[in-house]
Amino acid sequence: MAISRENVLLALQGIAVPGGGNLVSDDLVRALSIDAGTIRFVIEAKDADAARALAPLEAEARARLLALPGVEKVQIVLTAPAAPRGAPPQVAARSGGASASGGAEPPPSLKIGRHPTPQAGPLPVSGVARILAIGSGKGGVGKSTLTSNLAVALARAGRRVGLLDADIYGPSQPRMLGLTGQRPRTDGQMIEPLHAFGVTVMSIGLMMKEGEALVWRGPMLMGALQQMLNQVKWGELDVLLVDLPPGTGDVQLSLCQKAQVSGAIIVSTPQDVALIDARRAIDMFDKLKTPVLGLVENMSSYICPNCGHEAHLFGHGGVAAEAQQLGLPFLGEIPLNLDVRLAGDAGTPVAAGEGPVPDAFARLADRLIGGGMA
Ligand SMILES: Nc1ncnc2c1ncn2[C@@H]1O[C@H](COP(=O)(O)OP(=O)(O)OP(=O)(O)O)[C@@H](O)[C@H]1O
């Protein structure tokens, strides 16, 4: 029998916390997910003392949930922030590069991941002229790589660019932009984004302990995304690129429901399997009434650095053909090149340098600017 979220919350509402209220009314239940017979969630106490006081409630919550029909397993994590409340100092950005890494700091005190605030429909983000969703049907096609490099290329072309890493299942932008270990500053209300290579950057991964968001679903995710859009001091931006998780899930839905997204760009490799999934992503954006602005082919051709021979490891031209068939613009192609990966791993996007690959990203940026998309 399917377990309903409402029944779980109802059971948890019955558990009083010291000082009045209950687990749900005090917003202590975070990251609730229900997966077949398993219920997972986090009880987030405000500090270590509060966590100790809540420990008996964890057992009570488990017992109550296990008594619900269909529940086989209950996983509860009781956590408290590792550091006292207050913002860790932000490390200043080096001009032209990413802020220097200061080692792994605890997450900022602002709680990310909460129930969404009701709103009438998709809203603009203050100061942001355009929001572009960067999506893919399949994982690993280079969507995050493309997003960081496109952001850098747009910044180099003089645009005011923001990048929101909403890939909660594997936020990779901090690593790709050399921001690993840094924490954004917050006053408890608003978040100061980080800056790297001329791009204003915020990643859901910078706001939480590793792996914390993995269990989020539905409303929690929607609330978190809403916070990332509205509680970050984005400043005045010509364009905000949103790096989405692969596929067609809650984050895509939440983004298009909460924000006025100008359009989506779909990244795919030329392989048939990737293209089939890309079609699904396009279909989803159509259903969400978000215009698909075009397709990009990543890992297009491979030029052997030793002999100059051009090979097409994943095929070539498949995405352009698909775009034509769907009547969508083909925005450009990025070659498969070892430097792309090495630069991404090293935290200095290849688009920040010179050469044929940075030129390919510059062409893509120009195409978007020329088309009024960025
Ligand atoms: N054009 C390219 N040439 C060489 N390597 C690339 C290229 N594009 C991406 N890569 C590498 O492929 C791997 C996957 O890329 P990336 O993480 O950007 O994909 P993704 O689609 O965002 O994945 P996920 O869906 O898992 O987030 C990375 O190691 C990246 O460096």
Automatic annotation (TrEMBL):
Family matches, as SUPFAM superfamilies: Fe-S cluster assembly (FSCA) domain-like, P-loop containing nucleoside triphosphate hydrolases
Binding residues for ATP: G137, K138, G139, G140, V141, G142, K143, S144
Low complexity bias: start-end ranges: 92-104
GO molecular function list: 4 iron, 4 sulfur cluster binding; ATP binding; ATP hydrolysis activity; ATP-dependent FeS chaperone activity; metal ion binding
GO BP annotation list: iron-sulfur cluster assembly
Keywords annotated in UniProt: ATP-binding, Hydrolase, Iron, Iron-sulfur, Metal-binding, Nucleotide-binding
Domain MIP18 family-like span(s) in chain numbering: 5-75
Positions of region (Disordered): 84-119
Lineage: superkingdom: Bacteria
A Pfam family that the UniProt record links to this protein: ParA
Protein family membership: In the N-terminal section; belongs to the MIP18 family. Belongs to the Mrp/NBP35 ATP-binding proteins family.
Subunit structure: Homodimer.
Task of the protein: Binds and transfers iron-sulfur (Fe-S) clusters to target apoproteins. Can hydrolyze ATP.
Name assigned to this protein: Iron-sulfur cluster carrier protein
